[in-house]
Structure formats: structure tokens, C-alpha cells
Amino acid sequence: MTLKRNDPPWDYLSSASPTSLQSFELSRLNHAANLRREIGVLMDQWLDETAQALLARWLLENPEVLRQGPLAAALNRSGVELDEVEALPELQAPVIRPKLVRQVKPRVRVAGQRG
């Protein structure tokens, strides 16, 4: 997919009134905002699809996971027969550590000081 380059309409812009220039500016900003919103939706879809594909790849490479833990129990409840379900320890979810945010100390303003 190639990107089409949009050159500004110089003839129009050079002869436009200030009101027309403001209208043109707002039109371009609105279009840019709409594109940004669409990109956000596409990024969310892309991340979801990629995550599901990676999960499928991981399960292909780690078939023993299907034979243990909550996933095996769910499959058994749904009527799927698993041959030789082994009593292996439950898998634990990965630990996700929150990103630390730098604490901001409040400024104390003294009467008569600027800043």
C-alpha cells in the first residue's frame, strides 16, 4: 500500500481570505482527527488479532498445557475427552508489575513569592 502525497493547494491558499484560511485549517485538523481515531481502532484490532495468533502458536508449541489446569477442566465440562489427563500442578498466571510513576511533590507557595 503506497501513500499518496497530498501537496497543499498553493494557488487557493495564496489567494484565500483569512476566513477561508481558517476554514481550510479547521477542515484539515478535523480530517486529521478522524484519521487518528480510525488508526486507534485499527491498532486495537491488530493487537487483538496478533494476541490470538500468538496464543494459538504458543498452544501449538506447548500442547501439554491443554492437558492440565483450568483449560483441561473447561474442556472436560464441554464434553471433550482428553486422553490421560495428568495431575500436574496448576499453571500460575504471569505476574504483571505496574509501571512505577514518579511521585510529584506538591509545591508550597509562600505569600509574596513568584513561581
Structural features, described:
By secondary structure, the chain is mainly α. The protein has a domain at 11-77. It contains 3 helices and no strands. The longest helix is centred in the middle third of the chain and has 44 residues, at 18-61.
Name a few traits of the molecule:
flat; 51% helix; mainly alpha; 3 helices; 115 residues
Overall pLDDT level: 78
Beta fraction: under 5%
Largest sheet: none
How many E-type strands?
0
Give the oligomeric state of the chains in this entry, treating copies of one chain as homo and distinct chains as hetero.
single chain
Stretches with pLDDT under 50, minimum 5 residues: 84-88
What is the H-and-E element order? HHH
In whole angstroms, the N-to-C terminal distance is 51 Å
**Based on helices, strands and strand pairing, what is the structural class?**
mainly alpha
Annotation field: number of helices: 3
Instruction: Specify the helix fraction band.
Output: 40-55%
What's the layout of helices and strands?
Layout: H1 10-15, H2 18-61, H3 69-77
In short:
By secondary structure, this protein is an all-alpha fold.
